[in-house]
Automatic annotation (TrEMBL):
It catalyses: GTP + H2O = GDP + phosphate + H(+). The keyword Phosphoprotein does not apply. Its EC number is 3.6.5.4. The gene is ftsY. Involved in targeting and insertion of nascent membrane proteins into the cytoplasmic membrane. Acts as a receptor for the complex formed by the signal recognition particle (SRP) and the ribosome-nascent chain (RNC). It is found in: Cell membrane; Cytoplasm. This is Signal recognition particle receptor FtsY.
Length: 295
């Protein structure tokens, strides 16, 4: 995971011996900038990282070695990502049912992520129901029904082509009447440019009045994540992001780009196709992963 960044930073900062040597700071910073850009971090964000690093090492008031630079980079990345920490712990919500709507363009992993979330909620000892709100794509209802079965969670569904807002409404009623803690609403993947589908989304939101709306973004798209987020923010609005497919994101910069440029919290990271492959967003874990300590 994040191999692009991880390997290059590991090579730059060396392995053990010699890393305390005084180095030409500007050269290392130039190289860091280059590595970040290759990982698909935007120029603006990459420059910001390097500038903050520079401020940090200057404040040390002495000549710096590779270890200092590595620690400065790591702490700047953590600091930058702290701003994207979720303000609420989804698992600790007292409101019943707590309704979460999932949005995103086609194939980002919404349906799979809902299966993973349902699994996580169930493992935490709380009850959850899924609304099969993707009535648009052939096979989507069946896909979510299979995932529901796999994780042992009920799925409320209508027939294909039905009104997704009605499915969401039924699922919320179902949960309310049975004291179920969470409702997870799937939705049809839509290109951010498709006005009709975006309008339909607004209707689901109006009817379901979700407590949290999460945009599911595929990390592999890199900087296009920012465009997708902007379009969804304008058309429908959302509260936070789930970044998926980090296990296949060779470049590794999407986490930084989304944290810095989307301006919404990142709730979870999808790290595989299995139902356990969802992890809470953790800036320290990510920074340690991309800027490894010498072996
Ligand atoms: N490697 C990997 N694959 C993932 C991850 N999340 C989802 N996928 C895969 O991505 C593909 C698309 O996932 P879906 O859940 O069907 O995507 P969707 O957003 O519901 O798709 P639409 O209904 O077309 O909008 C599937 O093959 C998933 O197994 C992840 O974190 N890692």
């Amino acid at each position: 995971m994040f191999d692009g960044l991880r390997k290059k930073f590991a090579a730059l900062f060396g392995r053990g011996g010699g890393s305390e040597e005084v180095v030409k700071r500007a050269e290392v910073e130039e190289k860091i900038l280059e590595i970040l850009l290759e990982a698909d971090v935007s120029l603006e964000t990459a420059e910001k990282i390097v500038k903050r690093m520079e401020e940090r090492v200057r404040a040390m008031g002495r000549k710096v070695g590779m270890n200092d630079l590595r620690e400065a980079l790591r702490s700047v990345v953590v600091e930058m990502l702290q701003g994207a920490r979720p303000p609420v712990d989804i698992m600790e919500q007292a409101k019943k049912p707590y309704v979460i709507l999932f949005l995103g363009i086609n194939g980002t992993g919404k349906t799979t992520t809902i299966g993973k979330m349902a699994h996580l909620i169930k493992k935490s000892g709380r009850r959850v129901v899924i609304a099969a709100g993707d009535t648009f794509r052939a096979g989507a209802i069946e896909q979510i029904a299979i995932l529901g079965e796999q994780v042992g969670v009920s799925v409320i569904k209508h027939s294909s082509g039905g009104d997704p807002a009605a499915v969401a409404y039924d699922a919320i009623e179902h949960a309310a009447s049975r004291g179920i803690d969470f409702v997870l609403i799937d939705s049809a993947g839509r290109m951010q440019t498709n006005r009709n589908l975006m309008d339909e989304m607004k209707k689901i939101k109006r009817v379901a009045k979700p407590d949290l709306t999460l945009l599911v973004i595929d990390a592999v798209v890199g900087q296009d994540a920012v465009n997708q987020a902007r379009a969804f923010a304008e058309a429908v609005g959302f509260d936070g992001v789930i970044l998926t497919k980090l296990d296949t994101d060779a470049r590794g910069g999407a986490v930084i780009t989304v944290a810095e440029e989307v301006g919404k919290p990142i709730y979870y990271l999808g790290v595989g196709q299995g139902m356990d492959d969802l992890m809470p967003f953790d800036p320290v874990w990510y920074a340690n992963r991309i800027v490894p300590s010498p072996e």
